[in-house]
Automatic annotation (TrEMBL):
InterPro entries: NAD-cap_RNA_hydrolase_NudC (IPR050241), NADH_PPase-like_N (IPR015375), NudC-like_C (IPR049734), Nudix_hydrolase (IPR020476), NUDIX_hydrolase-like_dom_sf (IPR015797), NUDIX_hydrolase_CS (IPR020084), NUDIX_hydrolase_dom (IPR000086). GO terms for biological process: NAD+ catabolic process; NADP+ catabolic process. The keyword rRNA processing does not apply. Belongs to the Nudix hydrolase family. NudC subfamily. Keywords: Hydrolase, Magnesium, Metal-binding, NAD. This is NAD(+) diphosphatase. CDD domains: NUDIX_NADH_pyrophosphatase_Nudt13. Gene3D superfamilies: 3.90.79.20, Nucleoside Triphosphate Pyrophosphohydrolase (3.90.79.10). It is an enzyme of class 3 (hydrolase). One of its GO terms (cellular component) is peroxisome. Its EC number is 3.6.1.22. It catalyses: a 5'-end NAD(+)-phospho-ribonucleoside in mRNA + H2O = a 5'-end phospho-adenosine-phospho-ribonucleoside in mRNA + beta-nicotinamide D-ribonucleotide + 2 H(+).
C-alpha cells in the first residue's frame, strides 16, 4: 500500500493565498486592474459555469467561468474597492486599522489568492513592496501570475446581471454559454485546479453571506481584510454608540470574526476478517444509496474519540484500531471531512435505534462492492439527486448532521437485489471522500488488516 498522502477532490489548492496582503489596500485595489486577474461569480451559492455553447450541452465540457475585471466592472461599484471610507469614493485613512481592506458597500468580494506558474523566493511579495505612494503600474508589475477573486451577485438585479454576462469576453468573443449551476451536479467535470479554487470560493461566499450580525453585541458587521474578516459596525470611526456598552470585539482576537471550518469524521468500518465493510443508509437518501457513517467532532474529542462515539450512536458498534486515511475540504458550506478506517466485529448485532439517524446499517462484502464499482451507474448520481441533496443540506441546521457520506439524497427502503440493468446498490463517487475510502478498501489499497475481535473502549 502506498504511503504517499492521498489528495482528494477539492484539495491541493494551487493558489498562493497571500494572507499577509489581505489588509493591504494598495495591493488589492491595484491587482483588481491587472489584465490577468480573474473572477469566479456565484449566485445563491451556485457557481457561474461555462460550456461550449453547443446544443445539447455536453456535461463533460463544464468548467468554471473565469471572467475578467472588464467583464465584471459594472458590478463592482465605484472605487476604491477596498478600504472604503465613510462616503462613496472616499479612501479610508491608512492608519485606521478597523477599515483595513474594508468593503462597506457594493457586491461582496473575496480575494482568493494568486496563481503563480512558478513560485520562487523572489516572488514572495512582502507587504513592504506595496505602498499607497507607489503608482498603479509599478504595483501590478511586482505581481507575477493571475489573481483570483470571488464575487457574490445574489442581490444583483437579474436584468443587470444578464446584460453583464451577455457582454463578457467569454460570451462575445469565445462563444461560450454562461449559466449558474447546482455545484454537486457538475463537480465531477471540474479539473483539480477548478475544484480546489471552487471549494475555497464557495465556502468564503457562504460564510460572508450567512453572518450578518456581531455575535457579541448584535450590531451589523461589514467585510474587511478582503472578505476574510467580519468587523462589528459599532467599531466604525463614525459610529454613533451613545448609550451603548463597548463591543467586546474592540479588543482581542475573536474566532467568530474569521472564517471557520467544522471538522467531521467519516469512517469506513471493516470487520475482523478484513472482507466486509459497514455502510449505512440515512432516512433522507435515495433508494439503494449507501455510504460511510460520519459525524461532527465534538468539543474535547480527538478524531479517534469521535469515530468511536459516532459508530456507537449510529449503529451500536464498538470499534477499535482507528486509523487516519486522508482529508477533504467539503464546501457545503465549509467542513473538513476527516477520512478514517476502523475495525469492528461483524458477529455482533447492529442497532440503529440510539440516535435514530439511519434507516438501516449493513455489512457488505468486498465482492459486492467490487460489483457495484465495476457498474457504470454504481457511483452515478442524477442531477435531480444532487438538487435534492442541496435543498436538504442547505436548508437544515448545519450542526444537525453533516453532509454525510459526502452523501447524496433522499431515501426509501433500498434493496441489494440488482435490477436487470442497474447496480444492486449505489455508493458515493470518488469526488467525495466517502467514495474514496470505500473504493480504496475494496481494491485492497487501504484499510486495516484482518484481526482477532476485541472489545473497544468508548
Amino acid at each position: 500500500m502506498s504511503t504517499d498522502p492521498y489528495v482528494n477532490n477539492f484539495s491541493g489548492n494551487p493558489l498562493n493565498r497571500l494572507a499577509w496582503l489581505r489588509t493591504s489596500q494598495p495591493f488589492l485595489n491595484a491587482i483588481v486592474h491587472a489584465p490577468a486577474t480573474r473572477w469566479l461569480v456565484f449566485r445563491d451559492g451556485q457557481p457561474l459555469i461555462q460550456t461550449s455553447g453547443e446544443a445539447p450541452v455536453n456535461p463533460s465540457k463544464h468548467s468554471l467561468a473565469r471572467l475578467t475585471t472588464r467583464d465584471v466592472r459594472p458590478l463592482l461599484g465605484p472605487e476604491p474597492f477596498f478600504s472604503q471610507g465613510q462616503r462613496e469614493g472616499q479612501l479610508a485613512p491608512a492608519d485606521e486599522k478597523k477599515l483595513e481592506a474594508a468593503r462597506l458597500r457594493g457586491t461582496p468580494i473575496v480575494f482568493l489568492g494568486l496563481h503563480e506558474s512558478q513560485t520562487t523566493f523572489a516572488a514572495a511579495l512582502p507587504s513592504s513592496d506595496f505602498s499607497a505612494k507607489t503608482d498603479l503600474q509599478t504595483l501590478t508589475s511586482n505581481v507575477q501570475g493571475s489573481a483570483y477573486f470571488s464575487l457574490d451577485v445574489t442581490d444583483v438585479d437579474s436584468a443587470e446581471l444578464d446584460n453583464v454576462l451577455a457582454s463578457s469576453v467569454a460570451t462575445t468573443q469565445e462563444g461560450l454559454k454562461l449559466t449558474f449551476s447546482e455545484p454537486r451536479a457538475v463537480m465531477s467535470t471540474l479539473d483539480a485546479f477548478e475544484a480546489a479554487i471552487f471549494a475555497e470560493a464557495r465556502s468564503m461566499i457562504d460564510w460572508n453571506a450567512r453572518n450578518k450580525f456581531c455575535p457579541s453585541c448584535g450590531s451589523s458587521v461589514f467585510s474587511s481584510w478582503a472578505g476574510w474578516k467580519l468587523t462589528c459596525s459599532s467599531l466604525l470611526p463614525w459610529a454613533d454608540n451613545a448609550g451603548k456598552k463597548p463591543c467586546p470585539t474592540a479588543t482581542g482576537l475573536h474566532n467568530f470574526a474569521h472564517p471557520r471550518t467544522d471538522a467531521v469524521v467519516i469512517m469506513a468500518v471493516i470487520d475482523q476478517t478484513g472482507d466486509k465493510v459497514l455502510l449505512g443508509r440515512n432516512k433522507k437518501w435515495p433508494p439503494k444509496f449507501w455510504s460511510c457513517m460520519s459525524g461532527f467532532i465534538e468539543p474535547g474529542e480527538s478524531f479517534e474519540d469521535a469515530v468511536q462515539r459516532e459508530m456507537w450512536e449510529e449503529a451500536g458498534v464498538k470499534v477499535f484500531d482507528v486509523r487516519y486515511h486522508s482529508s477533504q475540504p467539503w464546501p457545503y458550506p465549509s467542513t473538513i471531512m476527516v477520512g478514517m478506517y476502523a475495525t469492528a466485529n461483524s458477529d455482533e448485532p447492529l442497532r440503529t435505534d440510539l440516535d435514530n439517524e439511519l434507516d438501516e446499517a449493513r455489512w457488505f462484502t468486498r465482492e459486492e462492492l467490487l460489483a457495484v464499482l465495476s457498474h457504470t451507474d454504481g457511483t452515478n448520481l442524477s442531477r435531480q439527486d444532487h438538487k435534492q441533496l442541496s435543498a436538504a443540506a442547505e436548508g437544515s441546521n448545519p450542526h444537525a448532521k453533516p453532509d454525510e457520506a459526502n452523501a447524496q439524497p433522499k431515501a426509501a427502503v433500498g434493496t441489494r437485489t440488482a435490477s436487470s440493468d442497474g447496480p444492486a446498490f449505489k455508493i458515493p463517487p470518488r469526488t467525495a471522500i466517502g467514495g474514496v475510502i470505500i473504493s480504496e478498501w475494496a481494491y485492497g489499497r487501504a484499510g486495516p488488516q484482518p484481526v482477532s475481535p476485541k472489545t473497544a473502549n468508548l
